[in-house]
Write a structure and sequence with these properties.
Blueprint (H helix, E strand, L loop, with lengths): L1 E8 L16 E8 L13 E8 L15 E9 L10 E6 L5 H17 L2 E6 L6 H13 L4 E4 L8 H9 L4 E4 L10 E3 L3 H18 L4 E7 L7 H13 L5 E7 L6 H14 L5 E4 L1 H13 L7 E4 L4 H9 L5 E2 L3 H16 L11 E4 L3 E2 L9 H5 L9 E2 L4
Parallel strand pairs: 5-6, 5-7, 7-8, 8-9, 9-15, 10-11, 10-12, 12-13
Antiparallel strand pairs: 1-2, 3-4, 3-15, 6-17, 14-16
Helix pairs in contact: 1-9, 4-5, 6-7
C-alpha cells in the first residue's frame, strides 16, 4: 500500500464559535492510495475526528450544529470495530446516486461492510424532491428484516416520524452526511455543513483580500432548500464573510436540486439578472457546471468559483484552477464511520457512552496549491468505481 500523509492546519476560527483563537492545530491523517499489493479496506484508520458524547435532545437543537446537550467537541482518533458479532444485514437509504458525491459515500459503506462481513441492501430516492419515496423505501427496508439502517435523510425534519417508528421497533438508525433533527435517531456520522460553508467563506474572504478586492458581488447556490445542509452552508458562509473588511453583496441566492441541468439553469438565469459577479459560490454540482458557463459568456477570467464541498468531478477542476477551493467532508470516511457506528450498536454498545453519539472527520479545504497532498483515491475511492446496491453478509 502507498500511504500519503498530509498535515492540515485547523482554521484560526474554532468550530462554529465565530471568535478568533491564536493557535494552529496540526492534524495528521492517512489517505490511502491502493496499489496492486494492497488491501486498502483493512488499514484505513486511524483518522482524526471531532466527536460528541452524552444525551441527545432536540429542544435547543439548531440545524448544522451539534445539540447543546451533547458534550464536545472532543478531538480524537477514530478506531473502527474489529468484527461484527454476527452477519448483520444493514439497510441503506440515501437521497440519490445521480452525482459522484453519494457514489463516494457508497464506496465507503461497501468497503467497510466487506471488511466487517455485514450485508447491505441499498435504496436511493432519486433526488431531494422525493421525501415520500424515501420514507416508503425505509418502510420497505424494515419489512425486509434488516438489522439496522443507515439513513442519508432528504429532509432536516421530514423523516422524524419514520425514524421514531423504526427505532421504537428495535431497529437502530444511524444518520450519515446530512444533519437532521430526529429526536430518536440512534447516532450520527457526519460533519457540520455550517462549518463547510464557513471554511468556504473564510477562504473566499482571504482570496478576495489578497486580490485587492474591496467590494464583492457573489452569487450563492446552496442546494435543495428543505435539505437542512444547504441552508447550513449559507449560514456558515455569511458568518465567515463578516470578517471581510470590504463590502459584501450576495446578489442572489438560488435554491434547487443538485442535478446538473437544474444548477446550470439557476446559474444562467441568475447571470442574466446579475452580469457582474466576482464569485460564484455553492454546492458542488453548481461549482462543477459553473466554469463552462462562465467560459461561454467570456467571464471565466473575471468570476471565480468556490464550492462548499467537494465531489470527484471537482477534483480535476481544482487541480487546473477552474474552481479555486472546496472544503472536503471526506465522504468515504463518513460512509465507513456510519457502518462502524451501526455495527457497534448491533454488537450491544451504546452511542454517546461507549463511542461518540456524533462524530465526523476534520474538514480540510482543497485548493490548487495543496491538492497534491490529497490523492483522489483517498478522498473518493477508485476513479472507475461503480455503486453497489446489494452485498451478502459473510456467513
Amino acid at each position: 500500500m502507498a500511504i500519503t500523509f498530509f498535515l492540515h492546519s485547523c482554521s484560526s476560527l474554532f468550530f462554529q464559535k465565530g471568535y478568533k483563537l491564536c493557535f494552529m492545530v496540526l492534524i495528521l491523517t492517512a489517505l490511502f492510495v491502493p496499489d496492486s499489493n494492497a488491501n486498502a479496506e483493512n488499514c484505513w484508520w486511524p483518522i482524526q475526528v471531532k466527536s460528541y458524547y452524552g444525551i441527545y435532545e432536540t429542544k435547543t437543537k439548531k440545524s448544522g450544529k451539534a445539540s447543546s446537550t451533547l458534550q464536545g467537541p472532543k478531538l480524537e482518533e477514530w478506531l473502527p470495530p474489529t468484527a461484527a458479532a454476527r452477519p448483520y444485514t444493514i439497510g441503506i437509504s440515501v437521497p440519490h446516486i445521480k452525482d459522484s458525491y453519494w457514489v463516494a459515500v457508497n464506496y465507503g459503506i461497501i468497503q467497510e461492510a466487506k471488511r466487517l462481513g455485514v450485508g447491505i441492501k441499498m435504496r436511493e430516492a432519486g433526488g431531494y424532491n422525493n421525501l415520500d419515496k424515501q420514507i416508503k423505501q425505509v418502510e420497505e427496508l424494515i419489512r425486509s428484516n434488516v438489522d439496522g439502517i443507515i439513513l442519508g435523510s432528504i429532509s432536516y425534519t421530514g423523516t422524524d416520524a419514520i425514524i421514531t417508528k423504526t427505532v421504537k421497533s428495535n431497529i437502530p438508525i444511524v444518520e450519515v452526511i446530512n444533519d437532521i433533527n430526529a429526536p430518536d435517531i440512534t447516532a450520527k456520522a457526519l460533519v457540520s455543513f455550517y462549518d463547510m460553508g464557513y471554511y468556504a467563506g473564510e477562504f473566499l474572504a482571504e482570496h478576495a483580500e489578497d486580490s485587492g478586492k474591496n467590494d464583492l458581488r457573489i452569487l450563492f447556490l446552496p442546494g435543495p432548500q428543505a435539505s437542512g445542509w444547504a441552508s447550513d452552508t449559507l449560514d456558515g458562509f455569511n458568518d465567515a464573510m463578516q470578517y471581510f473588511p470590504g463590502r459584501v453583496d450576495i446578489v442572489a441566492v438560488k435554491w434547487g436540486d443538485t442535478g446538473r441541468n437544474k444548477q446550470s439553469e439557476l446559474i444562467r438565469n441568475a447571470m442574466k439578472d446579475n452580469p457582474d459577479i466576482d464569485y460564484i459560490v455553492g454546492n458542488a454540482v453548481a461549482a462543477e457546471v459553473a466554469p463552462e458557463i462562465l467560459k461561454e459568456s467570456g467571464k471565466d477570467k473575471k468570476t471565480a468559483v468556490v464550492s462548499t464541498y467537494i465531489i470527484p468531478a471537482l477534483y480535476d477542476k481544482i487541480k487546473t484552477g477552474k474552481v479555486i477551493a472546496a472544503p472536503s467532508d471526506l465522504t468515504v470516511f463518513q460512509g465507513r464511520m456510519a457502518v462502524d457506528m451501526l455495527v457497534r450498536i448491533l454488537n450491544g454498545k451504546k452511542a454517546g457512552t461507549d463511542f461518540p453519539f456524533r462524530s465526523g472527520p476534520f474538514i480540510p479545504t482543497i485548493t490548487p496549491e495543496n491538492i497534491k497532498s490529497y490523492p483522489y483515491e483517498g478522498l473518493f475511492g477508485p476513479r472507475d468505481y461503480k455503486p453497489v446496491f446489494k452485498l451478502e453478509p459473510k456467513k
